[in-house]
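Reviewers asked in the last cycle whether our approach scales beyond single polypeptides. To address this, we selected a multi-component target totalling 200 residues and predicted its structure end to end. The input consisted of the following lines:
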Amino acid sequence: MELKKVYEERRSINFFDKEKGLNDSLLREIIDRAVLAPSAFNLQPWEIIAVKTEEGKKKLYENGLSQAKVLEAPVTLLILGDRHGYGAENTSWLNTENEENRKKSQKMAEKLYGSTEEMKIKFAESNAGLLAMSIMYAAKDLGVDTHAMSGMDFKKIKEGLEIEGEKEVVMAISLGYLDNSKTLYERLKRKKYDEIVKEI
Ligand SMILES: Cc1cc2nc3c(=O)[nH]c(=O)nc-3n(C[C@H](O)[C@H](O)[C@H](O)COP(=O)(O)O)c2cc1C
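The resulting structure, written as structure tokens, was:
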């Protein structure tokens, strides 16, 4: 799909076709493309929980994400951001082969992103947020509809799905296909350049 069309035609799909599954290889392709998103030091401090089974969907619905879409969509992805993803144990550091350079960068990252709790959250959410957007555009390009959600009880979800300490659920994205018997509301107005850009 032409990139301009991907931007213009991506919508948040409130109504998923319950009868239409999402092919496993298509889901893989979406994720494999989406991970080309940028991240600080290329650390990719993210993980994804793909909720595909009826049991998983029910668990998600009952543990904080009680939006019908979760039950109707074939797959819902929980996008996790790692608040400690700048740490030396992140295997992405091994991309920097020179040990001295790697250690220097690790020190810098620790100072930049590990200084306060606020910075850690910012690190996790900004990087995982870019992955999330990348997933939605990759999906649209491959003909798959999405819906991002953050209207949930994050604490309950974390506990209910036994997500470990430093990993934060940044948002959920349901994937599938629009139920064609439903009509989407018109796209809401966006703020334009002059309303949001301050030139200095
Ligand atoms: C981070 C984020 C969280 C959102 N949370 C919800 C949600 O919990 N429930 C919902 O129905 N829509 C949610 N939305 C969808 C927005 O309402 C939607 O993106 C917006 O109205 C613009 O519509 P469009 O995506 O169709 O262009 C969320 C979107 C984003 C990006």
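The chain has a mean pLDDT of 96. We regard this as preliminary and will revisit it once experimental data from Aim 1 are available.
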